[in-house]
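Dear colleague,

Following up on Tuesday's group meeting, I ran the structure prediction for the two-component complex that the binding team flagged. I've pasted the input sequences exactly as they went in, so you can double-check that nothing got truncated or mislabelled along the way. The structure tokens for the whole assembly follow below. Feel free to forward this to whoever is handling the docking comparison.

Inputs:
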Amino acid sequence: MFGIVVALFAVAAHAADAPRLLRIGVLAYRGSEDAERTFETTVAQLARALPHYRVEMIAGSAAFLTTQIARDEIDFVVTNPGHYLELAIDYSATAIATVQDMDGTSASEAVGATILAPTNLGEIQSIADLKGRRIAAVAPEAFGFRAAWLEFLDRGVDPFKDARPLFVGFPVDGVVDAVRAGRADAGIVRSCLLEKLIAEGKVKPEEFRVVGRRPSGTLNCQVSTRLYPGWPFVKVAQTSPAMARQVADALLAMQPSSGDIVWSAPESYHRVQDLYRALKVGPYAPFTRLGILDFLWEYRWWGIAASMAALWWLVHVTRVAHLLRRRTAELQAAHEKARLEAERMEHTVRLSLMGEMASSLAHEINQPLAAILSYARGCERRLDAGIDPDGVREGVRRIALQAERAGSMVKRMRDFVRKTPSRQLPIDPAVIVADALALFEPTAAARGVTVEADLTGPLPIVRADRLQIEEVLLNLLQNALEAAAGRPDPEIVLSARVVDHAVLIAVTDNGPGVPPEARDSLFDAFFTTKPEGLGLGLSLSRTIAEAHGGRLDPDFDTPGATTFRFRLPLIEEEDHV
Amino acid sequence: MSDDAPIIWVVDDDPAVRDSVGFLVASLGYAYETCTSAREFLERLDDARPCCVVLDVRLPGLSGLELQGELLRRGSTVGIVFVSGHGDIPKAVRAVRLGAFDFLEKPFDDQILLDRVGEALEASREAIAERRRRGLLERRLAALTEREREVLARVVAGKTSKAIALELDISAKTVENHRANLMAKAGVNSVAQLIAWASDPTDI
């Protein structure tokens, strides 16, 4: 698509008020320069007649002009009758004048086509002789070609099936060049082009012969087709009626001078309509072509945009789905990693706790072993002496009891350090407290610290991970022990009771208390006041408390006592199933 | 005589340990008593009887070693055999230096424990006998006059009446009177018997 804009300022265009734009599109069948030359007088006269307009001429191909009309960039069009027919249907275009040559040619029979063949190709005499030949033309939709097409059909020749059309595009001179160069055996051009080229000296009169010549009436040129009205001056739907009337008046009022074109009242273009109907082209193309292909072509930008949008959407959706899958997997992996990390940390702290209590626990297991040994030796001596058979029986029974005692201690220790996945199950908190105390008491005893268990009445069932809660309690007890040991009358009180829909377990020691500067960091990981502490106990304990929907809070307010309170929420009613 | 029958005390806060040690010593026919704490033991102890104590080092409240110190302060004759769940050498050395018969680590060899218990009981018996002898002597000497005790000390030292009279700046006749009174109070007939009466009451 190409277009050239030439602005012609009228003499009187220097009017004070800004001139309105009047844009005239001109079909450039021989190139834009020729189009301008042909119509420059018309445009200049219009500019003179309508000084309040700034007149612009835009030359271009039919497709370019159609596009400009669609974009409302053109007010008027000067074009061939075929193009006008299409514009009339698609854009409600109306001819306001028809061109007329000065030489007296009838305006109703002014345009046709001429079929040229090189004079030396003697075998091409009529249109029928063109079967199987290569025929050059501007384009399948060019008016000249279509005019010729009807003549072909009349003689039983389908130019597409029976001949080989060669479309060379604008300008029309290319057709002459193709024939002259032997690339085509014949060419279809607009009527009077041949005479014009001869007059311009570009073609020798004897060089081409006109094939299928028909009478040309008042037209002073050789033609091969019927004649159709001259080019119309067309207004389109959006052209304002006032402007159209002013232009029409100006066109008809133009005074012809020699060699110029003049404008007469618009001719009837029904013969052009008949031509198109017979060829089933333009507005009369079969529905499939017009309906779908033309529709698609016309709305191709929308189509492309919609396709791009759909494609973008598809890519976007796919990408989002992919990202979602990847993120989900990453999240799951991170979650799993964090869980394992937490379990590892719990286990480390449990081992560390067990390490701190190890010596006392060993002592605790040693006690039943020592008892077992003494009972066994006592039995042995009684048997050797043959005395006290009842004593032997009693001794053996007590050996069994002490073995069970040692065994349960070992089991408790093994359970505590075993690596087990976290599981929250309904459990009696008293059982956990008892287990923790059983593990802890030997250590307290070794350090000379009294542990008082203040457990009033039965406790309701909670949902908890037994080991984790035991770990929290042992952490608190161990901390309390470190604080209280070495003080006069060191004592730890462990109490458990129900307060506000929760089991509240409190561990209180009568140690020196936590120094104020350490209170803020108490629950930070790796913060410790003990020389060999991991600094994980309280931080982990709080994490465990929160994982159970509970809390772990210190209480420094009572003088001479430090308390840590561990809240474990009761199972909600709906959980009881 | 039931008062002289030895008794073995077992002091441990672990009931099984207490009971098992009692069960063991009972196999040799010993009588035994158990205590949960050092305080309870101090309240119940009657060391007029031959006795010993199998004592846990680690006890709630007063510890085993503190109990040993208290017994020494009281001049108790009870023999101590320590048992401990932990091999604590410094504690063991200190305990033995202060007179404990042994420091056994749990679980202990029954024979060693019983041997030590036997030794401790023997020592306890001797200590009781010694205490009785001293008591008797003190009572005998308490019945004498000041001058008689001075004369007796010199008689036991093997001095003649003349030498004693010279030493005490009294007449030989007076010394002879004191000797006669001493023989009468002691209920003996000879000087040799008088010397024995004043030094070793068990030999009578």
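The interface with chain A takes residues 13-14, 16-17, 19-21, 23-24, 26-28, 58, 60, 83, 85-86, 106-108, 110 of chain B (CB under 8 Å).

Cheers,
M.
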